[in-house]
Design brief:
- This is N-alpha-acetyl-L-2,4-diaminobutyric acid deacetylase.
- It comes from Clostridium ragsdalei P11.
- Its cofactor is Zn(2+).
- Residues 41-227 form the Succinylglutamate desuccinylase/Aspartoacylase catalytic domain.
- Keywords: Hydrolase, Metal-binding, Zinc.
- With 329 residues, this protein is an alpha+beta fold.
- The strands form four sheets. It has a nine-stranded mixed β-sheet, with helices on both faces.
- It contains six helices and 20 strands.
- Helix 1 (55-67) packs across helix 6.
- The chain has two domains: 3-226, Zn peptidases (Aminopeptidase); 244-316, OB fold (Dihydrolipoamide Acetyltransferase, E2P) (Beta Barrel).
- The protein is globular, with a radius of gyration of 20 Å.
- Bound molecules: zinc ion.
- The site of zinc ion has 4 residues, from loops.
Length: 329
Amino acid sequence: MQILKVGNMCAKTGEKVSGYVQVKGTDIELAVTIICGEKEGKTVFISGGVHNAEYVGIETAIEIANEILPSQLTGNLIILHLMNRTGFEHRTMSMVYEDGKNLNREFPGNAQGTTADRICHTVVTEFQKNADYYIDLHCGDGYEELTPYVYCVGVAVPEVVKAAKGMAEVINVPYLVQSPCGSGGSYNYAGSCGIPSILIERGCMGRWSKEEVELGKKDVRNVLRYLKVLQGEVSKRTYHPVDVGNVICKNAEHTGCWYPTKKAGANFRKGEILGYIKDYFGNVLETCTAEMDGILLYQVASLCIIKGDSMVAYGENPNHKEGAKGTDG
Ligand SMILES: [Zn+2]
């Protein structure tokens, strides 16, 4: 008989338990489901809502927690439905309500810090500590437009990087990015601790749809099948993600109004203009120009853009061959 403990919740072999885990040192309670398989095996941690306006990931976590049964598992799932709960309840988008921090910049956190630090610390010491693998469900934030893609950890021991890449390759999205970071983000930090981890980006702009959630659940199930934790074979996919290299994340140098010229997912050539920042009179303050041929992974889509905050992110698309024409798609 196996017993899996997360905070003050626990589940035994063959049980599914849902309840709340308290963020240590706060009165915040996080919704959690533990599914302990009838057969013993590896434990997969799944989280939604690190960024609270990324609704596709949150709804995917909620539905996966409801649908998967202990009888289907050789191993266990720990599902954290919504990591930034107070942010969600105040619609703060990426920020924790109490301190204005972005959770995915604060890992591994600190038990004595502000609320965001304490959430990160609880996630590391109660959730990641139990995990053999980790799937973090994101999407574009409330002001971000993106093309679906998947990150896997890139800064970790080679076996962990390889295992994470294998998980990412069964995700049904066109692009895969190996993260150059070993800290800050929840999945980055988990990777640096030896847990193969991926982050799925699907959906954006504070919206969600049944279709996107179905695709998200299919992705999660396929990773679990690939890991032999969920019964069945990895199902057919439309996409087999290709590696996007040399990712450039450009931050804005001015606060003002943003006028992007491309759509997320567009391919372009070095020197093409990706957008303008203008002041409130319509005067151009800044021109964003592509530093290389690339595929646009995500960009700010709100009229408001903020100095020092993200503007565009793009990388090299191996499928966009030299000599091919740029597309504005
Ligand atoms: Zn996110």
